[in-house]
Amino acid sequence: MMDQLISLLTDYTFQVVALGTGFLGLLSGVIGTYATIRGESLLGDALSHAALPGIAIGFLLIGRKEWVVLMLGAAASGLAATALIQWMSRKRVVKFDSALSLILSSFFGLGLVLLTHIQGSANANQAGLDTFIYGQASAMLIQDVQTIAGIGAVLLLVVGLFWKEFKAYTFDPVFTQTLGFSGTLLEFLLSGMMVVVIILGLESVGVILMSALVVGPSVAARQWSDRLSGVMGLSGLFGFLSGVIGTTLSSIGHQIPTGPTIVVVLSIFVMASLLFAPKRGLLMKQLEQKKRKQKYAQQLQTRKEANEYVG
Amino acid sequence: MLVEIRLIAVIVAVACALPGVFLVLRSLTMMSDAITHTVLLGIVLAFFITQDLNSPLLMIGATLMGVATVWLIETLQRTKLLGNDTAIGIVFPLFFSIAIILITRYAGDVHLDADSVLMGELAFAPFRRLTLFGMDLGPKSLWTMSVILALNAAFIGVFYKELKLTTFDPAFAAAVGFSPALLHYGLMTLVSLTAVGAYDSVGSILVVGFMVGPALTGYLLTNRLKQMIGIAVLAAVINSLIGIELAFLLDTSLAGMAAVVTGVTCLLAFLFSPEKGWIKKAALRRKQKREFYTWLEKEGIH
C-alpha cells in the first residue's frame, strides 16, 4: 500500500494533475469567498453554464479548436450573462434567483443550439459537450498547470492590490459608493475575476465541479474564522487540499473519475467544518448547550438549598 | 410524427410552466435547478436496485431523490451557518458527483447515458412508444407528461387558495392552521416528478428554463396570480412551438432552441412590460430627473 502511494506521488502525470487541480481549488476558494459573502454563490453555477455559447461561437469564428479563442469566447459569454443578470435584478424588478435561472438555461440552450449546428446533427450527445460538463482532469498537461498558475498569480495580485476596496464593497456596497469608489468598476472587477476562474477550470474539471469549487471552500472556511483574511486563506487551503487529495484518491482507485472525487472530498471538508468547527460547529453547539443546562440545574439546586437553610 | 413532437413539446412546456409560477414567486428556482441535477443520482440508485432501465421504479426513485435533495438543502439552511443559495450549491454538486462516480465505476458498460439524462432529445421521443396489449398507443413520453400535466393542474386547481396564501403570507397561513410545509413539499415533489418526466424529452438542464421562463414572463406582465398562470401557459405554448419551428429550420437541438426562445420572450417582456418594463421605467426615471432639476432651479439651489 505504501509502495503504491509512493510510486503514485512520484508519477509525473499524477503530479501535474494534482498540482493543476490544487491550484484551481486554491484560486476558486479565494475568488469564491467574495461571492459567498455577498450571497451570490450560485453565480458561479450560472456562469459555468453560460460559458457554453461563447465556446461554440469561438469555434464557429475560427473553424478549429484553438484553446485561447474558445476561452476568450467563454469569457465574453460569461461576462454578457453576468451583465444581463445584474441588469435584470439590480433594480429589484426580477428576483436574483429568477434572473440566474433564466439566463443560465437560455444561454445553455443557445450553446446547445450552436453546438448541434456545428456538429451537423440534431443529437446533442457528443464528446465536446461531455468534457464541458464533466471535465477531463486526468488529461491535464504541464502547460495547463502553468497557465493556471500564471493567470492565478495575476488574479491573486489583483485581490491583494484592491484588498480594501473589495472588502468594503463586499460588505457594504452602498457605503463604498458614497466614499467615491465606482460601483460599476468594482462590480466588473469582481465578476471578471469570477469569470476568469471559471473559464480556467472549465476545460479541466467541467461545469459542475467549478460550481462546487467556487462555493465549497469558503463555506468550510467561514466556520473556522470571522475575519475576511482568515476565511480567504483557509478557503484557498481547503480548495488546494481538495484538489490534491481528490486526485490522489481517484488515482489509487480503479476507474474513478477525478473531478467528481474532488467534489466529494470538498463536501467532506464542508460537512466536517459544519459539524466540528469550534464556536460555530453544530457539535460544539450541542456540547455548549449541555454544559449550560448542567450549570443552570446546579444553580437551581444551590438556590433551593440556600432557601431551605434560611427557611 | 412531426405532430407528435410538437404535441409532446407543448405538453412538456405547459406541465413545467404550472409549478414554475410558484417557484418564481417563492424564489425557489435555483432549488429546482438543483433537483434537475440530482435526479440523476436517483435514477442511478434505482437502476442498481432494479437492473432494469425501463422500470417505473426509476422514475419513483428519481422523484424521491429530488425530495430528499430539498430536505437536505433545507436542513442545511436551518443551521444558519451558511446562506440559502450556498446550501444549494453544496448539496447538488455532491449528489451529482456521486452519481457520476457510480455510473463510471459500476455502470460503464451499461447504456445508462448521463448525457441523455441531462440533455435528452425531443427528436427521439416519438421512437420510444408505449405498447399495451400489442397496440401502439403513441410515444411513451406523451403519456407520461400528460399524466404529469394533469397532476400539476389538479394540484394547483385543488389547492389554489392554499398555494396563494402560503406563497404570499406563509406566517399568516400557518397561524390560521394551514401547513405551509406540507404544501411546500407537495409542490417540490411535483417539481421533481416533472423534472424526471421531462428529462426524456428536453433533458434536465433545460427543464429549469421551461419552468422559470414562462412564469417569469407572466410575472413581468401582471400582478394578479390567475393572470400570471394564464400568461405562463400561453407563453409556454408559444415558446415551444416557435422553438420547434426554428429548430427544424436551422437543423439544431429542439429543446435548446425552445430554451433560447423562452429567454427571448422573457427579455421582451422585461423591456416592454406596461408596468414593470425597463423602457417605461427608464423613461420615468428621466422624467423624474428633469422634474427634480427643475425644482432645484426654482428653489435657487445649484
Describe this structure in words.
The complex is a heterodimer of chains A (311) and B (302). With 311 residues, chain A is an all-alpha fold. Chain A has a domain at 16-128 and 138-208. Chain A has 13 helices and no strands. Chain A has helices at residues 2-9, 12-37, 43-62, 67-90, 96-119, 127-134, 142-161, 163-171, 173-178, 183-222, 228-252, 258-276, 282-310. In chain A, helix 3 (43-62) runs parallel beside helix 5 (96-119). The longest helix of chain A is centred in the middle third of the chain and has 40 residues, at 183-222. Residues 122-127 of chain A have low confidence and may be disordered. Chain B has one domain. Chain B is built from 13 helices and 2 strands, in the order H-H-H-H-H-E-E-H-H-H-H-H-H-H-H. Chain B has a two-stranded antiparallel ribbon. In chain B, a hairpin with a 2-residue loop joins strand 1 and strand 2. Chain B is globular and about 80 Å long. At the A-B interface, helix 3, helix 5, helix 6, helix 10 and helix 12 of A face helix 2, helix 4, helix 5, helix 10 and helix 12 of B.
Low-confidence spans of chain A: pLDDT under 50, at least 5 residues?
A: 122-127
**Average pLDDT taken over every residue of chain A:** 86
Overall shape of chain B: it is globular
Radius of gyration of chain B: 22 Å
Total strand count of chain A, please? 0
Strand proportion of chain B, as a percent range, falls in under 5%
Structural class by SSE content of chain A = mainly alpha
> How is the quaternary structure best described?
heterodimer
Series of secondary-structure elements of chain B, N-terminal to C-terminal? HHHHHEEHHHHHHHH
Let me know the largest β-sheet of chain B.
Answer: 2 strands, antiparallel
Strand content of chain A: under 5%
Calculate the mean pLDDT score of chain B and round it: 85
What is the C-alpha radius of gyration of chain A, as a whole number of Å?
23 Å
Strand tally of chain B is 2
Terminal residue distance of chain A = 72 Å
Q: Please describe the biggest sheet of chain A, giving its number of strands, its sense, and whether it closes into a barrel.
A: none
Structural class of chain B: mainly alpha
Indicate the percent of residues in helices of chain B: over 70%
Query: How many domains, in number, for the residues of chain B?
Result: 1
Instruction: Provide a count of the helices of chain B.
Output: 13
